[in-house]
Amino acid sequence: MPDSDIRLLALDGGGVRGLSSLMILRSLMAAVDPDNPPKPCDYFDMIGGTSTGGLIAVMLGRLRMSVDDCIAAYISLSNDVFQKKSHRVKINGKLQGRFDSTALERAIKQILKDTYHDENVLLKDASSTCKVFVCATSKQTSDAEFVDGALGMNNPVFALWNQAQDVWGDRLRSSLRCLVSIGTGVPALSPVGCDALGILLTLKELAMETERTAELFRQHNVFLDNDGRYFRFNVAHGLENVGLEDSNKQAEIGAATRRYIQTQDVLKQMTALTDALARRQC
């Protein structure tokens, strides 16, 4: 992919709600070519994700899976990866992760097995046209937990931008065609516990973190927004009662995401993005 035509994709973490981001991405790819939806790896030069978003990034970018195949794999793995784990708060008040990092490792190995890939394929990235990176843990936690929905970079858009700058340098600003950021929906705003000082930690902060990050990135890179090169998608309503580990609520996730995609504002945004994606310079 030429440096004059750079496309970036950021995927939030969100447990089982990652299915929502995949459905949004499927609609985008279908809009590019309804008869033969392309693979994201053929249109995006770099895909980055946090935790479960990183798992999706690996499947789409490194393993070059179609969105439909990725959805099927994501669903089949959901019962293993998205298991309930009680919130724990350390004595220093730092919220630990919801998911064990070993579950992510098992999930990736299972995907490699199911898609007939050698485990070493993850190390063979130098020649890949679609670059991938994963933000696996929060900066606020020092334990080896698979952080999803906890404090930290649940929205990896800044990390994606920094990685892209490392790769393309000063050319990035002028050569970027689009940066697409996809969320996993807004969860319920309920308390999760207290730290040693009695300060209440709530999921409201966790829910708002991704959108604050999205808006902060927009403000810091206003030229991208003004030029119509920054796109943010995130289901605002309908996923409030879907927890990170509720793998039995796939139908609810699908229904809410379809309603979101069919709204006029989102359809308009997708049309503009489809034009940017379709004009791939070969």
Automatic annotation (TrEMBL):
Signal peptide boundaries: none
Gene3D superfamilies assigned = Cytosolic phospholipase A2 catalytic domain
> Which residue numbers does the motif GXSXG cover?
49-53
Q: List where the motif DGA/G lies.
A: 148-150
Question: Which residues are in coiled coils?
Answer: none
Please report the stretch or stretches of sequence annotated as the PNPLA domain: 9-161
What are the BP-aspect GO terms? arachidonate metabolic process; glycerolipid metabolic process; lipid catabolic process
**Has the keyword Lipid metabolism been applied to this entry?**
yes
| Keywords linked to the UniProt accession | Hydrolase, Lipid degradation, Lipid metabolism, Transferase
Record's GO cellular component terms: membrane
Which molecular function terms from Gene Ontology are attached?
calcium-independent phospholipase A2 activity; transferase activity
Motif GXGXXG: positions: 13-18
Which residues are responsible for catalysis?
Answer: 51, 148
Name of one Pfam family that matches: Patatin
Q: Does the keyword Transmembrane apply?
A: no
UniProt cross-references to PANTHER family, sorted A to Z: CALCIUM-INDEPENDENT PHOSPHOLIPASE A2-GAMMA
Protein name per UniProt = Acyl transferase/acyl hydrolase/lysophospholipase
